[in-house]
Amino acid sequence: MKRPTIPDLAEAAGVSISTVNRALNDPDSVRPPTLARVLSAAEQIGFYGLRTIEHAVRSTQTTHRLGVLLQRKERTFYRILGEAIADAAENWQGGRIELILEFLEDLTPEKVAAHIVSLGERCESMAIVAPQHHFVADAIDTVLERGVPVTSLIGPLSAKGNVSFVGLDNWKVGRTAAWAFNRMVRTPGKIGILVGSHRLRNQEMNESGFRSYFREHNTDFTLLEPLPTYESAVVAREHVEKLLTDHPDLCGLFISGGGVTGAIAALRALPRRADFVAVGYELFDATRAALIDGTLSMLISHPMERFASETISTLVKTKSTGREGGAHRVTFLFDIYTPESI
Q1: How many whole angstroms from its chain centre is CA 313?
Q2: In sequence order, what are the beta bridge partners of 279?
Q3: I need a surface site. Which of 80, 183, 198, 331 has the fewest CB within 10 A?
Q4: Cα atoms found within 13 Å of the Cα of residue 148, Cβ hemisphere only
């Protein structure tokens, strides 16, 4: 097949040849909607100057300098989320995105607060994953006072100013997990609960929803006090080993926070019980394998592509609306995986 020519592109886009020439050589003279139509046609016919037109379209768009602060990059969940957000920013159609994506290894409130202030000085709108703490709230207010909107990811955050939110309805996450235990456990008994940190509000809300379901539907279950893993697989494994030793009648485990790989290792180290149910959080290679071999019974997970897209969209929107726009709240449905669905 012959290579598509400028006349071919003009015909496909429904514009004149001179318009295509201007799109290639003088894009500022072409209206943005027309540029976008030429770009779409170029993609469809495989026009050789596609990259030139793409660059022309981007050059006429508004640039949004966005900051995203996630937790430890060594954790698979945050690494995958970071990659998804970077992809969403690269493919964003509403303007050019200059993304500052950073990971924080030291999660002490003082360090998190200092990094929030630093990132706020380098972007026009920012999203963060952080614990609820007065240091963090004060840092958020400092950033807001400079006119930079702040959006909390995964778990909501409170401050004096308006803080937007993008994530799951964590109350529903907890109640859905409880529903699964109530349906799958043959004989009600004790259920162990792991959380990453009591200061991560999404996990607190997960647990609250979890307990509310059992209070409403089945009080025969005994819910043990939640144990914090501090997002550590080593700590999670120690907790699970102790739970199984101290409570040989344990009928289930709800892994609501970080450290799921450590919990999986502890469960695998002991003889498997057919009547034991374990519900975890987030789908990646290790948890997928645990579903397949029966270590985990069910997973509740963020849909990463949707999460990333909503994050970029909200950051652009909060930048555009400013303080007068108030806080934006975006929640979306979570994914549920079982051994039979993967």
Answers
A1: 13
A2: 254, 298
A3: 183
A4: 24
Six token digits for residue 83: 């990659």
The pairing of beta strand 150-153 with beta strand 125-128 = parallel
> For residues 309 and 84, what is the distance between their CA atoms, to the nearest angstrom?
8
| Tens of pLDDT, residues 205-242 | 999 999 999 999 999 999 999 999 988 999 999 999 99
The residue with tokens 């948890």 is 287
Burial of 129 (0-12, 13-18, 19+ CB in 10 A): buried
Helix (H, G, I), strand (E, B) or coil at 185: coil
- Give the chain's radius of gyration (CA, Å): 24
**Tens-place pLDDT, residues 108-163:** 999 999 999 999 999 999 999 999 999 999 999 999 999 999 999 999 999 999 99
Burial (0-12, 13-18, 19+ Cβ within 10 Å), 56: buried
Instruction: Check whether residue 77 and residue 150 sit in a common domain.
Output: yes
* CATH code (residue 68): 3.40.50.2300
The number of domains in the chain is 3
Nearest one of 278, 281, 275 to 266, comparing CA atoms: 278
Same domain membership, residue 271 and residue 204: yes
**What letter does residue 126 receive in the DSSP assignment?**
E
CA distance linking residue 209 with residue 40, whole number of Å: 46
DSSP SS3 for 263: helix
- Contact between 310 and 166 (Cβ < 8 Å): yes
Enclosing domain of residue 219: 170-301
How, if at all, do strands 250-255 and 96-103 pair?
Answer: unpaired
Question: Can you point out the beta strands (E) in 245-328?
Answer: 250-255, 277-281, 298-301
State the Cα–Cα distance between residues 155 and 214, nearest whole angstrom: 23
Q: From residue 211, how far is each of 81, 239, 254, 324 by CA, in Å? A: 28, 20, 11, 38
